[in-house]
C-alpha cells in the first residue's frame, strides 16, 4: 500500500481571494449621511459586497491598515461594536471613546468644544469617522468640516442610514425578495431607523407598508409623504395580531422612543410599559399561525417577548450577525474614496 505525501498546512499554496471590485456605475461614497442619497445601485452593490465578505471570497486591500474613528456622543452597543468588529475584520484599526459627550472628552457641555472642531481634529487622525449624536443634523455638520468620509450612526430624530441598509439586507435574505410583499413597521414610528428604512424601501417595491403605532403617536408627516411620493400603498392597524396575520415581515421598534433625541447625560427615563396589544409573544404567533418574519434593530424592551427567540421566524439576532458584513461593505466603499 502506498500513501500520498501531504504537505504541512503551513506550506500549502493558498489561493489568494480576488480583490473586491465595485460593479456597474457605483463609485466610492464620500459620506453616508442620509438614506436619501443612496440609490438602488448602491443598495445592490453593498448587498453583493456584504455577501462576499460573509463568505470570505474577496479581499479588500484598500482598508488594510486604515484607521476608523468611532465618535459616539450617545450610548450605543450594536452600532459601535458592529462598526468596531467590521473594522477589525477589514484589517483596519478603530479609535475612539466610549462616551464622547462625557467628562473624558473635551467635546462635552462644560468645555463646549464644537462638533465642527471635533470633526476637524479627528479627521486629521483617521481615514473615516462614524458619528452618533443626539442632535439632528450633527453628522452633516461634522462632515462639512471633516477631511475624511463621515458615516452617520444616528443623529437625533433624523436618520440612521447604515441601519436601514442592514434592515434591507436582512429582509432580502429572509424573504428572498421584498418586491410584492407586505412590510409592517411596529412600535414608535418617529425613530430615525424608520425614516431611513422608508427611504430605502422605495427601491424594493413592496405591495404595501403597514404601520402599527401607539394610538397617541402619529406616523410623522414626512414619513407618509416619502411613501406617497414613491406610490406605495400604506395602512394603519391598531393590534399586533393583525400584523402577524396579514404581513410577510415586521420591523419592530420599542413602543416609545422619546429618549432618542436626548443627550447621553440628560437623565431622561422613557416609559417602558408596552400594552398587550403591541407585544409579540410566542402564544400570539401560535394562535394566529403566523409566518411573519420578525426583525428588530434592537435594543428591545417588552415589544418582542423572549419566548419568541427560538422560533424560526425570529430574525433579529440573525439581523445582528448580518450587520457586520453590511458595515464592512459600507466601510470599504468610503475607504475606497481616499
Tally the structural domains: 2
Contiguous runs where pLDDT drops below 50 for at least 5 residues: 1-15
Rg over C-alpha atoms, rounded to the nearest angstrom: 21 Å
Average pLDDT works out at 87
Question: Tell me, what's the shape?
Answer: globular
Fold and architecture overview:
- With 338 residues, the protein is of the alpha/beta class.
- It has helices at residues 40-55, 78-89, 115-122, 138-145, 161-175, 192-201, 221-229, 240-246, 282-288, 316-335; strands at residues 67-72, 93-97, 128-133, 150-155, 182-186, 208-212, 233-236, 249-251, 293-295.
- The chain starts with 39 loop residues before the first helix and ends with a helix.
- The model is unreliable at 1-15 (pLDDT under 50).
Give me some keywords for this one.
single chain, 338 residues, alpha/beta, Rossmann fold, 2 domains, five-stranded parallel β-sheet, four-stranded parallel β-sheet, 33% helix, disordered N terminus
Lay out the secondary structure.
Blueprint: H1 40-55, E1 67-72, H2 78-89, E2 93-97, H3 115-122, E3 128-133, H4 138-145, E4 150-155, H5 161-175, E5 182-186, H6 192-201, E6 208-212, H7 221-229, E7 233-236, H8 240-246, E8 249-251, H9 282-288, E9 293-295, H10 316-335
Parallel strand pairs: 1-2, 1-3, 3-4, 5-6, 5-8, 6-7, 8-9
Helix pairs in contact: 1-10, 2-10, 3-4, 5-6, 5-10, 6-7
Amino acid at each position: 500500500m502506498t500513501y500520498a505525501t501531504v504537505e504541512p498546512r503551513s506550506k500549502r499554496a493558498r489561493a489568494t481571494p480576488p480583490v473586491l471590485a465595485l460593479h456597474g456605475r457605483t463609485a466610492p461614497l464620500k459620506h453616508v449621511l442620509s438614506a436619501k442619497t443612496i440609490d438602488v445601485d448602491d443598495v445592490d452593490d453593498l448587498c453583493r459586497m456584504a455577501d462576499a465578505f460573509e463568505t470570505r471570497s474577496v479581499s479588500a486591500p484598500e482598508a488594510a491598515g486604515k484607521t476608523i474613528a468611532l465618535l459616539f456622543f450617545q450610548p450605543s452597543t450594536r452600532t459601535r461594536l458592529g462598526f468596531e468588529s467590521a473594522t477589525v475584520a477589514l484589517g483596519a484599526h478603530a479609535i475612539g471613546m466610549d462616551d464622547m459627550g462625557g467628562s473624558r472628552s473635551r467635546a462635552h457641555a462644560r468645555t463646549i468644544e464644537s462638533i465642527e472642531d471635533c470633526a476637524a481634529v479627528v479627521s486629521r487622525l483617521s481615514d473615516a469617522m462614524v458619528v452618533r449624536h443626539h442632535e439632528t443634523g450633527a453628522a452633516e455638520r461634522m462632515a462639512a468640516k471633516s477631511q475624511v468620509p463621515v458615516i452617520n450612526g444616528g443623529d437625533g430624530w433624523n436618520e440612521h442610514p447604515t441601519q436601514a441598509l442592514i434592515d434591507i439586507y436582512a429582509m432580502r435574505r429572509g424573504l428572498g425578495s421584498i418586491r410584492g410583499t407586505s412590510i409592517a413597521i411596529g412600535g414608535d414610528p418617529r425613530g430615525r431607523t424608520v425614516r431611513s428604512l422608508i427611504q430605502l424601501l422605495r427601491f424594493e417595491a413592496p405591495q404595501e407598508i403597514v404601520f402599527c403605532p401607539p394610538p397617541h403617536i402619529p406616523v410623522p408627516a414626512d414619513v407618509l409623504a416619502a411613501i406617497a411620493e414613491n406610490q406605495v400603498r400604506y395602512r394603519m392597524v391598531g393590534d399586533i395580531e393583525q400584523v402577524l396575520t396579514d404581513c410577510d415581515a415586521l420591523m419592530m421598534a420599542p413602543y416609545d422612543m422619546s429618549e432618542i433625541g436626548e443627550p447621553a447625560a440628560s437623565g431622561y427615563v422613557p416609559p417602558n410599559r408596552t400594552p398587550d396589544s403591541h407585544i409579540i409573544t410566542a402564544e400570539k404567533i401560535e394562535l394566529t399561525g403566523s409566518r411573519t418574519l420578525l426583525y428588530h434593530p434592537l435594543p428591545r424592551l417588552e415589544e418582542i417577548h423572549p419566548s419568541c427567540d427560538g422560533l424560526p421566524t425570529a430574525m433579529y439576532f440573525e439581523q445582528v450577525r448580518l450587520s457586520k458584513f453590511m458595515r464592512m461593505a459600507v466601510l470599504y466603499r468610503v475607504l475606497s474614496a481616499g
